[in-house]
Amino acid sequence: MKYILGIDVGTSQMKVALFDLDGRAVASATPAYPVYQPQNGWAEQDAEDWWNAAVTGIREVLHGIDAASIAAVGLGGQMHGLVMLDEAGAPVRRSILWCDQRTADECRRITETVGAERLLTLTANPALTGFTASKILWVRNYEPENYEKCAHILLPKDYVRYRLTGEFATDVSDASGMQLLDVANRCWSEEMLKALDIDRALLAKVYESPEVTGMVTEDAARLTGLCAGTPVVAGAGDNAAAAVGTGCIRDGKSFTTIGTSGVVYAHTSRMAADPAGRIHTFCCAVPGQWHVMGVTQAAGLSLSWLRQNICPELSYREMDALAEQTPIGAEKLLYLPYLMGERTPHLDADARGVFFGLSGMHTRAHLIRAVLEGVSYSLKDCQRIIEGVIGPIGETTVCGGGAASGLWRQMIADVYGCKVQTLRANEGVALGAAILAGVGAGIYPSVAAGCDRIVEIKEEILPVAENTEKYRKVYAFYDSLYETIKASYQALSKLEL
Question: For labeling, which of 42, 219, 253, 319 is most exposed (least CB within 10 Å)?
Answer without folding.
Answer: 219
